[in-house]
Design a protein that fits this description.
two-stranded parallel sheet; disordered C terminus; 190 residues; 22% strand; six-stranded mixed β-sheet
Protein backbone atom coordinates (compact mmCIF):
# COMPACT_ATOMS: atom_id res chain seq x y z
CA UNK A 1 0.00 0.00 0.00
CA UNK A 2 1.16 3.50 -0.84
CA UNK A 3 -0.84 6.53 0.22
CA UNK A 4 -3.82 4.21 0.69
CA UNK A 5 -3.47 2.78 -2.84
CA UNK A 6 -2.85 -0.84 -3.72
CA UNK A 7 -0.05 -0.89 -6.29
CA UNK A 8 1.77 -3.64 -8.11
CA UNK A 9 5.51 -3.49 -7.38
CA UNK A 10 8.51 -5.30 -8.80
CA UNK A 11 11.25 -5.47 -6.14
CA UNK A 12 14.68 -5.69 -7.70
CA UNK A 13 13.43 -4.39 -11.06
CA UNK A 14 11.71 -1.14 -10.06
CA UNK A 15 12.33 0.94 -6.92
CA UNK A 16 9.83 0.01 -4.21
CA UNK A 17 7.75 2.99 -3.00
CA UNK A 18 8.62 4.05 0.52
CA UNK A 19 6.63 5.85 3.20
CA UNK A 20 8.78 8.99 2.81
CA UNK A 21 7.44 9.36 -0.72
CA UNK A 22 3.96 9.81 0.80
CA UNK A 23 5.33 13.00 2.38
CA UNK A 24 6.36 14.15 -1.11
CA UNK A 25 2.78 13.57 -2.31
CA UNK A 26 1.38 15.53 0.65
CA UNK A 27 3.79 18.42 0.01
CA UNK A 28 2.89 18.50 -3.70
CA UNK A 29 -0.86 18.39 -3.03
CA UNK A 30 -0.63 21.15 -0.41
CA UNK A 31 1.29 23.31 -2.85
CA UNK A 32 -1.10 22.63 -5.73
CA UNK A 33 -4.32 22.99 -3.69
CA UNK A 34 -7.37 23.25 -5.97
CA UNK A 35 -5.82 25.16 -8.86
CA UNK A 36 -5.15 23.69 -12.29
CA UNK A 37 -1.50 22.83 -12.82
CA UNK A 38 0.94 20.48 -14.53
CA UNK A 39 3.19 18.09 -12.66
CA UNK A 40 6.01 16.01 -14.10
CA UNK A 41 7.01 12.98 -12.03
CA UNK A 42 10.46 12.20 -13.34
CA UNK A 43 11.75 8.85 -12.17
CA UNK A 44 8.23 7.55 -11.61
CA UNK A 45 9.16 3.93 -10.84
CA UNK A 46 5.88 2.12 -10.16
CA UNK A 47 3.94 5.34 -10.74
CA UNK A 48 3.05 5.61 -7.05
CA UNK A 49 3.61 9.37 -6.69
CA UNK A 50 2.06 10.27 -10.04
CA UNK A 51 -1.02 8.15 -9.38
CA UNK A 52 -1.45 9.45 -5.83
CA UNK A 53 -1.25 13.07 -7.06
CA UNK A 54 -3.63 12.37 -9.96
CA UNK A 55 -6.22 10.95 -7.54
CA UNK A 56 -5.78 13.58 -4.80
CA UNK A 57 -5.58 16.59 -7.15
CA UNK A 58 -8.20 16.23 -9.90
CA UNK A 59 -7.35 19.63 -11.47
CA UNK A 60 -3.73 18.64 -12.06
CA UNK A 61 -2.36 17.33 -15.35
CA UNK A 62 0.19 14.69 -14.39
CA UNK A 63 3.02 13.44 -16.63
CA UNK A 64 5.34 10.62 -15.59
CA UNK A 65 8.52 9.16 -17.02
CA UNK A 66 11.42 6.96 -15.99
CA UNK A 67 14.75 5.92 -17.44
CA UNK A 68 13.70 2.29 -17.04
CA UNK A 69 11.35 0.76 -19.60
CA UNK A 70 10.33 -1.80 -16.96
CA UNK A 71 9.33 1.05 -14.64
CA UNK A 72 7.25 2.76 -17.34
CA UNK A 73 5.48 -0.55 -18.07
CA UNK A 74 4.78 -1.12 -14.37
CA UNK A 75 3.51 2.44 -13.94
CA UNK A 76 1.17 1.92 -16.92
CA UNK A 77 -0.17 -1.25 -15.30
CA UNK A 78 -0.81 0.63 -12.06
CA UNK A 79 -2.57 3.46 -13.90
CA UNK A 80 -4.85 0.86 -15.54
CA UNK A 81 -5.35 -0.89 -12.20
CA UNK A 82 -6.80 2.32 -10.79
CA UNK A 83 -8.80 2.98 -13.97
CA UNK A 84 -7.21 6.37 -14.51
CA UNK A 85 -6.75 8.37 -17.67
CA UNK A 86 -4.00 10.26 -15.89
CA UNK A 87 -1.10 10.32 -15.34
CA UNK A 88 0.15 10.37 -18.88
CA UNK A 89 3.25 8.26 -19.26
CA UNK A 90 6.14 9.08 -21.55
CA UNK A 91 8.93 6.80 -22.73
CA UNK A 92 12.19 6.91 -20.80
CA UNK A 93 13.58 10.40 -20.13
CA UNK A 94 11.25 12.39 -22.33
CA UNK A 95 9.60 14.80 -19.89
CA UNK A 96 7.41 17.60 -21.28
CA UNK A 97 9.53 20.09 -23.21
CA UNK A 98 10.34 23.71 -22.57
CA UNK A 99 7.36 25.97 -22.46
CA UNK A 100 4.87 23.43 -21.14
CA UNK A 101 4.47 25.46 -17.98
CA UNK A 102 4.98 22.57 -15.58
CA UNK A 103 3.82 23.80 -12.16
CA UNK A 104 5.99 21.38 -10.24
CA UNK A 105 8.54 18.72 -11.07
CA UNK A 106 8.51 15.81 -8.66
CA UNK A 107 11.64 13.75 -8.62
CA UNK A 108 11.35 10.56 -6.68
CA UNK A 109 14.30 8.42 -5.77
CA UNK A 110 16.63 9.88 -8.32
CA UNK A 111 19.99 8.18 -7.86
CA UNK A 112 21.94 10.18 -5.28
CA UNK A 113 24.11 7.65 -3.48
CA UNK A 114 27.69 7.53 -4.68
CA UNK A 115 28.23 4.14 -6.32
CA UNK A 116 31.53 3.83 -4.47
CA UNK A 117 29.59 3.68 -1.17
CA UNK A 118 27.11 0.94 -2.17
CA UNK A 119 28.49 -1.50 0.44
CA UNK A 120 27.56 0.99 3.18
CA UNK A 121 23.86 0.78 2.24
CA UNK A 122 22.64 -2.78 2.87
CA UNK A 123 19.04 -1.48 3.06
CA UNK A 124 19.24 -0.65 -0.66
CA UNK A 125 20.79 -3.90 -1.88
CA UNK A 126 17.49 -5.25 -3.27
CA UNK A 127 16.76 -2.09 -5.29
CA UNK A 128 17.77 -1.60 -8.94
CA UNK A 129 21.30 -0.19 -9.03
CA UNK A 130 20.41 2.50 -11.61
CA UNK A 131 17.57 3.79 -9.39
CA UNK A 132 19.81 4.34 -6.36
CA UNK A 133 23.49 4.70 -7.21
CA UNK A 134 25.20 7.32 -9.38
CA UNK A 135 28.80 7.92 -10.39
CA UNK A 136 31.11 10.39 -8.67
CA UNK A 137 29.59 12.05 -5.62
CA UNK A 138 26.13 10.79 -6.63
CA UNK A 139 24.59 14.23 -7.16
CA UNK A 140 25.08 14.73 -10.91
CA UNK A 141 21.52 13.55 -11.75
CA UNK A 142 20.21 16.23 -9.37
CA UNK A 143 22.42 18.90 -10.89
CA UNK A 144 21.02 18.10 -14.34
CA UNK A 145 17.46 18.07 -13.01
CA UNK A 146 17.80 21.46 -11.31
CA UNK A 147 19.30 22.93 -14.49
CA UNK A 148 16.39 21.56 -16.56
CA UNK A 149 13.81 22.77 -14.03
CA UNK A 150 15.19 26.30 -14.27
CA UNK A 151 14.18 26.23 -17.95
CA UNK A 152 10.96 24.22 -17.77
CA UNK A 153 9.17 25.46 -14.67
CA UNK A 154 6.49 28.10 -15.05
CA UNK A 155 6.59 31.21 -12.90
CA UNK A 156 5.23 30.16 -9.53
CA UNK A 157 6.29 26.55 -10.15
CA UNK A 158 8.40 24.48 -7.80
CA UNK A 159 10.78 21.57 -7.82
CA UNK A 160 10.18 18.90 -5.18
CA UNK A 161 12.94 16.39 -4.51
CA UNK A 162 13.34 13.42 -2.26
CA UNK A 163 16.97 13.49 -1.21
CA UNK A 164 18.82 12.01 1.77
CA UNK A 165 15.56 10.76 3.27
CA UNK A 166 13.87 14.16 3.28
CA UNK A 167 11.70 16.25 0.98
CA UNK A 168 13.36 19.36 -0.49
CA UNK A 169 11.18 22.06 -2.06
CA UNK A 170 12.47 24.98 -4.15
CA UNK A 171 10.46 27.59 -6.04
CA UNK A 172 11.72 28.58 -9.47
CA UNK A 173 13.42 31.65 -7.98
CA UNK A 174 15.19 29.45 -5.40
CA UNK A 175 16.68 27.06 -7.98
CA UNK A 176 20.03 28.91 -8.30
CA UNK A 177 20.58 28.53 -4.55
CA UNK A 178 19.62 24.85 -4.68
CA UNK A 179 21.96 24.29 -7.62
CA UNK A 180 24.80 25.98 -5.71
CA UNK A 181 24.15 23.69 -2.75
CA UNK A 182 24.84 20.71 -5.01
CA UNK A 183 28.24 22.14 -5.95
CA UNK A 184 30.07 21.73 -9.21
CA UNK A 185 30.10 18.64 -11.35
CA UNK A 186 32.42 16.00 -9.95
CA UNK A 187 34.17 13.69 -12.41
CA UNK A 188 32.79 10.18 -12.39
CA UNK A 189 34.85 7.63 -10.51
CA UNK A 190 36.46 5.12 -12.85
Amino acid sequence: MFNGLALVTAPGRVMTPRALSEQLVATACARLAERPARVADIGTGSGAIAIAIAIACPNVEVWATDISGAAVALARANVRRHQLERPRLRPPWRPPGTGTGARGLNRRNLPYVAASTAAQHPDLVSEPVAAVFAAGDGLEPYRRLVDAAAIQLADGGALLLQLNRRVVEASRSELPSLRAAFGNTVAAAA
